[in-house]
Amino acid sequence: MDGFVALRTMDQTILQNLKKNVDSKNSEKLKSSSPSSVSPPTKVGKPVNVMALTPADLKRFTMPQMSISYKGARLPVGWKSYSTLLVYEADNLRPSEKIAAFDFDGTLVDTNVRRPGADAWKLLYPNVAEKLAFFHHEGYKLVIFTNESNIDRFTNKRQAAIDSKLGRLKGLMDITNVPMQVFIACGKSNTGDSFRKPAIGMWQILEHYFNAGLPVDRERSFYVGDAAGREGDHSAADSEFAEALGLKFLLPEDVFGAITGPGSP
Length: 265
Description:
InterPro entries: HAD-like_sf (IPR036412), HAD-SF_hydro_IIIA (IPR006549), HAD_sf (IPR023214), PNK3P (IPR013954), Polynucleotide_phosphatase (IPR006551)
Region (Disordered): 23-46
Strand content: 15-25%
GO biological process, one term: DNA repair
Radius of gyration: 18 Å
CATH architecture: 3-Layer(aba) Sandwich
CATH superfamily: HAD superfamily/HAD-like
Pfam family, one: PNK3P
Distance between the termini: 15 Å
GO molecular function, one term: polynucleotide 3'-phosphatase activity
Largest sheet: 7 strands, mixed
Strand order of the largest sheet: 3-4-9-8-5-10-11
Number of domains: 1
Order of helices and strands: HHHEEEEEEEHEHHEHEHEH
CATH topology: Rossmann fold
Mean pLDDT: 85
CATH class: Alpha Beta
Oligomer: single chain
Low-confidence stretches: 1-7, 21-47, 260-265
């Protein structure tokens, strides 16, 4: 970690920006939000209704209910399932008040639905490992929140879908070599699944059960994702997810720089 003694200007700027409190509008929104009903502002001209787990849903969750398989498919060591949610925690993971949260596909890695398989991916930016190590060094817990409806959709190829997605995540974690926590929402879209982004169920489970009882400081945490409702984006799920939670939202290029430009090692 000696390289962190003299942080580059870009890294210093990112950290300084992340340490700023969210603006007063987001602060008020966060104070008034309840776990069971979150209504973020309108985006791209359409009302946004964000699903969430109710207090009763959260109370029903217990660790013993988690399974080492998912609808008949095997899960690798370290992975567990609950309802339509898959969860992984690295052995050396530590709780933190600060969460550095990321989407996976299109944010940390480049993948393509036409290229299945655990090895069919590459880092989207050459400095992903460096940046993740930087945030880990600064005391953030690294968490990935990702949707993967193929796991539910491919009923006859569910094991292959699980092996593909979880294999890619393992590949990323092997390369970055920093402890991470991963939440995968397997539910299909338009089914009212409270885990699938922009629904905030994954974050609620993290806060209530997967941070060793340590309260999360949302104003010091942030979320990075590529689905921001821009022209060409497949959705606004990431920006709506962050907005509903009162988290600072960043695009991948805000953190990692241009793919071949500033921010690369």
